[in-house]
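U., I forgot to send this yesterday:
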Amino acid sequence: MSSFIGSAIKLSIFGQSHSPAIGCVLDGVPAGYELDMEQLQTFCSRRAPGHTDISTPRTEADTLTVLGGIADGHSCGAPIAIQIANTNTLSRDYSELRRHPRPGHADWVSYVKYKNWHDIAGSGHFSGRLTAPLCAAGGIALQILQRNGIHIQSHVAQIGPKDLHIIDDPLTNISDPSCFAKPPSTQAQQLLANELSYGLAMLSSSIAAKAQQTIREVADELDSIGGIIETVAWGIPVGIGEPMFSGIENVIAQFAFGVPAVKGVEFGAGFAAAEMLGSEHNDPYDLVNNAVSPISNHAGGILGGISTGAPLIWRAAIKPTSSIGLRQHTVDLATQTTSSLVVHGRHDPCIVPRAVPVMEAVTALSLLDLMLQAGALTPPTARSL
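Result:
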């Protein structure tokens, strides 16, 4: 079924945007991993709506309620089930959309597929609201990977078209192998500081301020804007992933496209590789600290679907929010005539800022699945009597 994903671990997501609750079940996490619930709640709160003036005014605490799978602060081997209550819904704002489908949204195709039995309130299970339980599951994966020396960071790499020049500094230097082992010591704090100050996880404070102002201006015009999120993972051992259909790229892409706003992914140099010579794109090998290592990283840490030991680098293209306040052309499904629509309700003028922790969650779940398949995680110690 479409709400299930994973191999060594299996994740299922349940609920709709305006149902009483949403949640996830994460099966396959070995027993004995220590899980910090306060840290997990803090991570999920970064995605929660209504906490900055450039996000939707819908406010949700996104408080996590663990229903099973965690005992005495550790995974216990049972499926981990987490519920998140929906407490601030205004379903009446969506009543018109059953008859007048939004351009750019799934209203029309779901009307056809589900014969008009789909839940239209808050966009039902097509809503970005379902990324909240995805973050809950991904936050668990992040903690397990951190305890195995793998560190993941995402940031807003670009807001809007390039001609606006709202492009952040990269998270890692692909030409310096001394940067391949771990992220800079203060980088996480820098990202968090700008996320708190400007609502955007970016390295450059001046770029974050410019991006914040641009999003405000677009919102004032009742329009929306998209962008690019870059994610880097350090510390992945060499040899993780499989050729053909189970490579790192394949697994991440499958998880990533479960996020409704994602319209494209690329790894390493990505589409820019098509404009490079082989002599430019190839990453030479050398001995670094007495071990074989690529000394550049245009491949994004992956060759043949398998990790090279260099940082994993990938980017997700996030589309502009489809629910905008401008009048748009559509049809009236009841009368089968052309019509127009002004979308009401509470929507983000830019989805990108709140999607940053979602991309970290996607990366963590993908890597945890692959690491478990490879038997590459350090197993928890046995509990004493």
